[in-house]
Write a structure and sequence with these properties.
The protein has 275 residues and is α+β, with helices and mostly antiparallel strands. Helix content is 22%, strand content 20%.
């Protein structure tokens, strides 16, 4: 709640709407890394861009308030409570265990295209760990997905799972990943709900590829986060389950949450037998 209040104050100050503020030039409360309560790093040389970002942040705060009133919770992108993590995704309100709390936006790469050498070079650089792969080897690329700007084409305010962080050492994840299939039987387009699907295919699935094995006619493959327990006004944290790097090493900030799940995800059968 304190972080949301700080973000609201930042947005209002940008418009000069706080008591004692005569204009919109008031500087937000910046932390040592230069970010504000949204986790945004204002560009001192581009006031027009800053103004556009502030506008969308205010719209998102208003939408979140309406969603919380209707659903009991919403999600917001604010500065993470984890030092050095930048932005984080927060549940605003109370989400019960099992609730779908966020969608992962971005381009979807079906498994059959990932084996094509012509495309492999596109996945070499992922400094923010925004490449996620489902258990059926369908990859979601959220590297260029927005976290602030919503429009009539892509307008799902819950599509900020790519902002959620991995828990620091000593903390447990409060949500888990789940594969989502948007099927023909959902009739999303007929109901006008297709614009809330935050994904597009980078390459269409092949008729004889993974799509041929789907039980239903899948219009889009996706990824989401579900609450692993009841969550109330907390930052969303889920296990990234990173694949081991060279010599089995991980980034300095990364801590293993569940060794057994990590083995099941990345290690071969021979590796397990030798452990």
């Amino acid at each position: 709640l304190t972080k949301k209040a700080g973000a609201l104050r930042t947005a209002l100050a940008s418009r000069g709407w706080l008591d004692g503020e005569d204009d919109g030039d008031a500087l937000p409360d910046l932390k040592s890394d230069g970010t504000d309560d949204f986790g945004y790093l204002p560009d001192g040389t581009n006031p027009e861009m800053n103004g556009a970002i502030r506008h969308h942040q205010m719209v998102n705060l208003a939408r979140a308030a309406l969603l919380r009133e209707d659903l009991g919770f919403s999600v917001l992108s604010l500065r993470s409570a984890i030092p050095g993590a930048g932005r984080g995704a927060y549940v605003d309100g109370a989400a019960m265990a099992g609730s779908l709390v966020a969608f992962l936006p971005g381009e979807v790469w079906p498994k059959e295209h990932l084996t094509n050498k012509a495309f492999r070079s596109q996945f070499g650089v992922d400094p923010n760990y925004h490449l996620s792969i489902r258990y059926d080897d369908i990859l979601i690329d959220a590297r260029r997905a927005p976290y602030t700007v919503l429009n009539d084409v892509r307008s799902n305010p819950f599509a900020i799972a790519h902002v959620a962080n991995h828990p620091p050492e000593g903390m447990e994840p409060n949500c888990r990943t789940v594969a989502l299939n948007f099927t023909e039987n959902m009739a999303l387009e007929r109901k006008g709900l297709d614009r809330y699907v935050p994904n597009t295919y980078a390459r269409e699935p092949m008729y004889l590829g993974q799509k041929a094995l789907d039980r239903d006619v899948v219009m889009m493959h996706g990824f989401g986060l579900i609450a692993a327990r009841d969550i109330c006004n907390e930052e969303l944290l889920y296990d990234y389950r990173l694949s081991p790097g060279a010599n089995g090493t991980y980034p300095e900030w990364y801590s293993v949450c569940n060794e057994d799940e990590l083995r099941d995800r990345w290690w071969s059968g021979n590796d397990k037998d030798q452990s």
